[in-house]
Amino acid sequence: MRRAKHRSGARWGLVLGSIIVAMLTVGQAGKVFAGAVPAIDSPEPGSANEAQPVILDTQAGGDGDASAVEISDQLPVEISDQLPVEITDQLPAEIPSVDADTGCPEDVGLEPCDSDETDAGASIPVRVAEAVDEPSPPDLQLSKASDADGILHDGDDLVYTITVTNAGDETATGVEIVDVLPLGGQGVAFPPFPTLAGKACTVTSSVLPGGVPHAEVRCGRVSLDPGESATVTVRVIVDGNVCGPITNVVDVEGSNEPGANVGDDNHAEATDEVACVPRIRLSNGGPSFAHVGDTITYVFTARNNGGVALTNIDVSDPKCDSSPTLVDDANGNGTLGVGEAWRFECDHTVTSADGNVVHNLARVTGDHEGGSVRDTDTHDVDVIHPGIHLQTTATPTSGPAGTLIVYTYTVENTGDTPLFRISVDDDKVGHVGVIERLEPGATAELTSQVTLGSSPITNVATATGADRLGKSVDDTDSASVTVVAGTSGGSGGDGTGRGSPFTGSAAGALASWVVALTALGFILLLSSRSRSQARG
């Protein structure tokens, strides 16, 4: 006979004289299989009352009816006295068949029986509770690979393949991948453009404090169904700024992945090797903008990004007014060691002959035992020409005392660079206002108003602004208003009731009109007298 095993591997027996909780299974062959949980106050193993698993014969009806079973006569008195008198309600509704070879009930959730015996004697088949599997939460797993084949060199390209898989039974949401590109391989090339699950990634680069360049590819957020995977490929160009091993690291996170599932499988790395051959790198820097007449300073950095020391470092630039000067050679030993950088500088005064862009091409060379290395770099300086124009107008240009005069100040940027904080001021009105920014070719207007007095007035206004380098430009314009005779605040003779203007310069003309009118009246008087005498 083989014995049944509980999934936990524990052996269950009946201990004589103990209080037990029993489960009875009745088979058609007329056997009752009894199983029990550990007895209360069980004696120690090896004692006279050690647990004794039993198999009990039943008294069944002629047709195998097990509606009533008599077992008390076949149990030890100590056990039968402690069993319930009525057990009918605990019997299964249907009687399972019995395996002819093992005597074990079939289809009652038992594990297979085996032929060995327990320490206490015959084994007892035990009903096993079926386990219910709960769905597992999202569990993200990440992998990364490089297609590099051997040692990389300056200008080589390689493709990183990143795959994220949801190993959980629930959908993972908010899945995001962040791939930090290594120094020496931060130039992302297209095509292909990196995408994850159909969504375009973002490629960014910056310079961290201390001058350390940083580049990353960020993909997501997307959702992954249970068992689903998504892949992104990133193609980069080796720039030769470093040599030796370069390591690309990538991490993944999901908004609903529990912390217990976040671990080493959320991180992946790929390491490649860049050849450490003799190499030098030149960086050419300087200002971005200048005016004609400005003196600009170029800064050159020569860095040994190869694998051997270099000597006889020389930097040249035809735009320099004099040869570049070494201002920092690190340790001062005259050798540009691996990873070491030297700094050179030179000056140049901008002239109109340089044009709108000062373009320079600098070169560096260095020697090693096997030969020499060289590199070049360029830098451009935009020559800017700020300009400003002011037009001032008065409306109306004349009127009687008490007329409201509105001044309009039109400012135009006539240069090729933006102007900032343009202040407009009027010697009669005072400060008019500020224009914060004015692009090349653009115009802006400000207004002010005064009440005309009894005397003509001339206003002088000035507009002053500065370009991106702080150079100031300004322009001046004026507007005059004359006073006309008439009712204060009334209208003149031009349809607005202002009448003809009267200024001090018009006094001579007025005297001529008076003389002419007086002469005309005298002539008319004489003519009238002559006609009277003729009638008389």
Structure description:
The protein is mainly beta and 536 residues long. It folds into four domains: 132 residues, no CATH class; 135 residues, ntegrin, alpha v. Chain A, domain 4 (Immunoglobulin-like), CATH 2.60.40.1530; 103 residues, Gamma-adaptin ear (GAE) domain (Immunoglobulin-like); 96 residues, Immunoglobulins (Immunoglobulin-like, Sandwich). The protein has two helices and 30 strands. The strands form eight sheets. It has a five-stranded antiparallel sheet with strand order 10-11-6-13-14, with no helix packed on it. Strands 24-30-29-26-27 form a five-stranded mixed sheet, with no helix packed on it. A four-stranded antiparallel sheet has the order 4-5-12-7, with no helix packed on it. The longest helix has 29 residues. The protein is flat and about 135 Å long. The termini are far apart. The N terminus and C terminus are likely disordered.
In short:
With 536 residues, the protein is mainly beta. It has 2 helices and 30 strands.
